[in-house]
Amino acid sequence: MSKPSDFLLQPARQLYRWVFPAQIERDEKTMDVLQHIYPTINWHNVRFYHALPWFITGSFVNAIVLPATWGRRGVHVYFRDYRPNNFYNLMTAVHEGFHVLQYRDLGSGIGFFRRFMIYYLSEYLQLFFKNIKNNNRQNASQMAYEKHPMEIPAYAYEAAFRQYALDQKGIIYPSDIPAELMCQTCGYTPQVALPFLLIGALTTFVFMLLKPLIELFFLLIATPIWLMGKILSFIGL
Ligand SMILES: [Zn+2]
User: Fold this and answer.
1) Could you tell me the residue ranges of all domains in the chain?
2) How far is the CA of 154 from the centre of ligand 1 (A)?
């Protein structure tokens, strides 16, 4: 039977983990491949996490790369369901790795305020409103994602790597990966109209300021509940 302390400790821990997903112990195989195909990335600045961040839990994506909330260079990769030593998981990691390369090429920033975030959002908004203008209201969001100039090369590279992996029957030796499958730079040149760039920059800036405050608010809710649970558990309840 659950103890009274569990009724407090469990939701407090769940709330904490919802706001701050747990870090993943990265498997060697995935890292060997990523280090080999993206040799210019400093993987010490990249962390992997279980579950998506709180503000996109309901979205359709399986993984996402976001800046570290604190810091100038750190990049976090969130996986809805990370499965070590799994073929499809590796393909997701390869795709997300391409976005990490885009972060690297576009440079550092402050917390969420990075050029990657600004351009990704601006390009998305530009495509979204173009679709609306062309009467594609229903699929405007999906099309903006599929035709996004930062997604097209990531999907193309993922497809090329998947073909190579399938040709190797899924057995990949990083040192045997051909040089033409290695990515030194992402090759992205922004082509965003100024109004969209300004909206993207402003939204990213506001979110950079708000995100730590929202997370602190959740932490202030979770901490007293957890403390009360700990006190109950200490006195044997
Ligand atoms: Zn992507």
Assistant:
1) 4-234
2) 6
Which residues contact residue 66 at a Cβ distance below 8 angstroms, ignoring those fewer than 6 apart?
53, 75, 76, 78, 112, 117
> Using 50, 70 and 90 to split pLDDT, how confident is the model at 74?
very high
Phi and psi dihedrals of 83, rounded to 5?
Answer: -120, 110
Q: Which residues contact 113 (CB under 8 A, 6 or more apart)?
A: 67, 204, 205, 208
The answer to whether the predicted template modeling score (pTM) of the entire model surpasses 0.90 is: yes
Task: Evaluate if residue 1 carries a pLDDT over 70.
Answer: no
Quote the ligand 1 centre to 142 CA distance (angstroms): 13
How many angstroms is it from 116 CA to the middle of ligand 1? 12
Share of the chain above pLDDT 90, in %: 88
Q: Please tell me the distance between residue 196's alpha carbon and the centre of ligand 1 in angstroms.
A: 20
Arithmetic mean of pLDDT over the chain: 94
Q: Is the pLDDT of residue 27 over 70?
A: yes
Q: What's the CA gap between 80 and 57, in Å, rounded?
A: 9
> In angstroms, rounded to a whole number, what is the distance separating the alpha carbons of residues 181 and 36?
10
Distance 99 CA to ligand 1 centre (A): 7
Tell me 44's DSSP state.
Answer: G
223 C-alpha vs ligand 1 centroid, how far in Å?
35
Residue 29 main-chain phi, psi, to 5 deg: -60, -50
Residue 129 pLDDT exceeds 70:
yes
